[in-house]
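Example record

One chain of 336 residues, shown exactly as stored in the release files.
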Amino acid sequence: MDKPAFRPTQVLVLAVSMCLIGVSSVPSCYAADSEAEVKAEAKNETSAAEKSLRGGDAEKVTLVEDLPQLLLWKAQGDAASKGTVLCLHELGMHKGSFDDLGAKLSKEGYDVYSMDLRGFGGWAERGKEGRMDLKSTLADIKVTVEKLKKDAPNKQIFLLGEAMGGALALEAASKYPDIIAGTISATPGGEHFNTFSNYMSVGSKMVVMPNRRYNKGEELIKLATPKKELQEAIKNDAGVRLDLSPRELIACQFYMYKTKRFAKRIKTMPVLIVQGERDGESRPDGSRKVYDNLGTDKKQYLSVKDGDHYVYEDTNVNDEAMKTTVAWLDKHSSTN
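Predicted structure tokens for this chain:
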């Protein structure tokens, strides 16, 4: 296999070094919040308050006292629930992003929970505790699954995550196989188009304003999906945070590079890897490599021809993806 010309760390070091050459001092515009920036942030908060919030039809539930409430789409029908699915969202998104998926899976007999990952959604008002922190988020996932297992010991629990959430689902699966019955991970590869230019763009801001948020999310959304209606739905969702800091972007990217390592550690658990072929942000080959590295024989790969970066966080989840996902859940909920 051909090795890349640059390792991710080498690309980042090069980007930052080139930026340092051209920066003799921190520009005053990055040194502190200006009055104009404060007013702009206030304006954004006002406009955000006027937006709608996806997931509003789901039930809000408290499972773990110290964590934000989860959304629940309860299994429908007279029969007992087939199992439980816990959803983990992408960078910048929030628990309500799975509203269509949750509604559809509940009609198929599954209890669907969705949680906010640190830095997003319900964590926004929690100060330092609410900042993006992947290690703490993994602990949040563990304690949430443990609570679900305690409340319903005989019910199988499946993780479903997309992109950053998909990477977290794989790490959780590799570490907690005793409490997780199976994992669905969409777009977990972390190999992006235009890698060098992305590192240069983010790296330049990392030097002078590592924690200052800027609207990188809107650019990523345009790359992630060609669907104009989905782009608008995400931008008009009050729960979505498009202003991301260089530190958050880099932390997410380097975490995604670990997914092949997580995959190797999963030895017996059923895993479904999903990738949309119209994803303009992440290379499909990256997800295929994660699949190839899985240590379990109970693995399946789904390539969604009309899917993009948001296979499961779409406002209308692809029929092919839904059909395959339900069949996969039915198969493994009945055999575990």
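Notes: The beta strands are 59-61, 70-73, 83-88, 110-115, 157-162, 182-186, 271-276, 299-304.
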